[in-house]
Design a protein that fits this description.
Elements (H helix, E strand, L loop, with lengths): L7 H19 L8 H5 L11 H15 L14 H7 L11 E3 L11 E4 L10 H5 L5 E4 L2 E4 L9 H5 L5 E4 L2 H5 L5 E3 L5 E3 L9 H5 L5 E3 L3 H9 L4 E5 L11 H10 L4 E4 L1 H20 L5 E2 L4 H10 L13 H12 L4 E6 L3 H9 L4 E4 H10 L18 H4 L6 H8 L10 E5 L3 H13 L6 E5 L15 H9 L9
Parallel strand pairs: 9-10, 9-12, 11-15, 12-13, 14-15
Antiparallel strand pairs: 1-8, 2-5, 3-4, 6-7
Helix pairs in contact: 1-3, 1-9, 1-15, 11-13, 11-17
Amino acid sequence: MSIPMISEADRLRREVLAYVIKAVKEGKHEDIDRIPLKMRPKGTPSSRCCIYKDRAALRYRCMSALGFRVEDETDELKTLASYADDTKTTPPACDPFLTIFPDACSACMESQIMVTNMCRGCLARPCTNICPRKAIQVRNGRARISHELCINCGKCAEVCRYHAIIQVPLACADACPVGAIGKTDDGRVTVDDEKCIRCGRCIKACPFAAIMQSNQVAHVVRDITEGKKVIALVAPAVNGFFPVEPGKLYAALKQIGFSEVHEVALGGDDTAIAEAAEWAERKAEGAPFMTTSCCPAWMECVERHIPEIKPYVSHTPSPMIFSDRRAKAMYPDAVTVFIGPCMAKRTEAHKKGSPDYVITAEEVGAWLMAENVQLDELEAVQPELGGTHYGAEFAISGGVANAVAHYLPEGAPKPTVFKINGLNKKNIALLKVFAKTKKAPDDIIEIMVCPGGCVAGPCAIATPEDATKAIQSRRPEDFEA
């Protein structure tokens, strides 16, 4: 089994996951302590200053793969095998699940605009004219930026005809839509857990892979090896990540030990039906607008940054919660595992108390690699519970609103839709205005924190464009049993 590699950091993370999963599945916990040595043997080039720092970073990656946070370490001599043993009695870190290996951080400079030596001090000087703070002046034949006045808007870089002005990013901080990324006194990255909305963008953005997540896959593997009934709840986005029809992926999940496979697309239908009824009721009562509620990072943003918009947020549970309820109603003693591209689902599951675990598409891909599962060679199977294409398209921008419109109660007016396709500082400010004025341009505001929808989640293993095409290519009849 192979999955797309986007960067060396992706390859490294997935390789660590595969080694850890294999060792836990086979009960060879002592092998986990050898993973750093196996991946960085003597004589091989190092990606950091020395091979020993590489091995230290790999040790902490193994620790996080087992479900622990670097910040929780109290004994530096504790073996990884001991951490693996602890998964039998210690639940994985759920909230916060972000964890940082400080020594991996490169202490990048703050985001700033810089003038390079390509500047010609041209006569047109569009950079000085467009700057809203008059932070640019031309002296001695070259543009100079006063960083005390500069607000990093980037307008000067956009208009420079020589491309002589560049915007140098602080990757992790620039990716964060809520300003939760900061720096320690020595310049290393830190995350403010009170501001963080658990979207995972910083993990995806950090070029040094210093920000990690504590995984839950080792606990799921353990439950399967202990013979428990473990049900996979597969998010619609996941079917867009693997280059085979969904039935072959479901067959693979059963091959690695899942007892049943349920499509969360059915939970999407449940959410759309309930949300359509809720909208019709709110509209009849004169509500000015309603926002969707299925994106957990958005719900964290509401709690932490826009509490004033709460009255306008849908109360309908997410597809994950509906799917878990169905599974638990059928099998009260089963272990339920949501599989998707989203990290924030872990926080949602922790707060709601269901499902039991949340693992990512990336972890599943690593698991299939660990067990050398060849998807093309499997015979497709149907999920025990499926959904419709309306529920499946919850994974893409516009899909939620489309499903809600389809399931409107008879006689209810069709709502107009305002899409926020990727949360950022600008549209957070706009949402605050909607809440303050009690007015919005449309009836329903569909909010996707990740641009493109769930298919662009931080643990996606395909491009959003390819995943969207794969999901939209499924015909309505493909969902029939």
